[in-house]
Amino acid sequence: MRYADKIVIVTGGSKGIGEGCVRVFVEAGAKVVFCARNAAAGEAMAREVTARGPGEAHFVRGDVSKVDDLRALVEGTLRRFGRIDCLINNAGWHPPHKPIDDFTVEEFRALLDLNLVSIFAACKLALPHLRRTKGNIINMSSLVGTMGQIHATTYVATKGAITAFTKALAIDEAAHDVRVNSVSPGNVYTPLWQEAIDAAPDPARCRADGEAAQVLGRMGTIEEAGKLCLFLAAEATFTTGVDHILSGGAELGYGRKTRKG
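Now predict its structure.
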């Protein structure tokens, strides 16, 4: 019950790291409002998680690339609970890997809206209420935002921007006692990872390579990501503007050389 009766918003909360956050925060006693585009999956998860308690989960259908949906998420949370203590900006997408030649400008702009502009908008909408509770924001970045990734120029650009945005916002909001941090996961086993495994010519090899990319020899779990976010929200009260790496040591040592041919 480390976060009992606190009011938390999680974007993209029906699967992956967002799901891990919803589950962990409800287990800690929080009342969590989460959004996703798949209503059936979101509603089913909310019922299941609430039944386990001791906190509550409430689902709101929404697309974070639409500002009106984000406004409805924030305003609906306020109508239901009257306050907001924590905002976790998790929703985002990693496009298939391909060289810059094969990305269009329009694809990049759409990804910026989904991965980055949505975080700006959610923070802007929630901050007047977070200032009243001296709450906190956690933005989901990525390890590749600082170390790069092959054939992922658009995605890496959005994640690097999230990390930078988090630091700048932390400076501004310190005057209001609102903490702003980011989390940069490496390989966390999520449905996106399973999609990549399923699409690979050798799925078993793909999974093994994913596990071997960390010095700990495995991928992280969505629950481990959720627990880090809970620590930042509930206990890391002297931490702001920090990017917290959750990587199993993937960035340690020398990487593999890439070359043509």
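The two ends are 55 Å apart (CA to CA).
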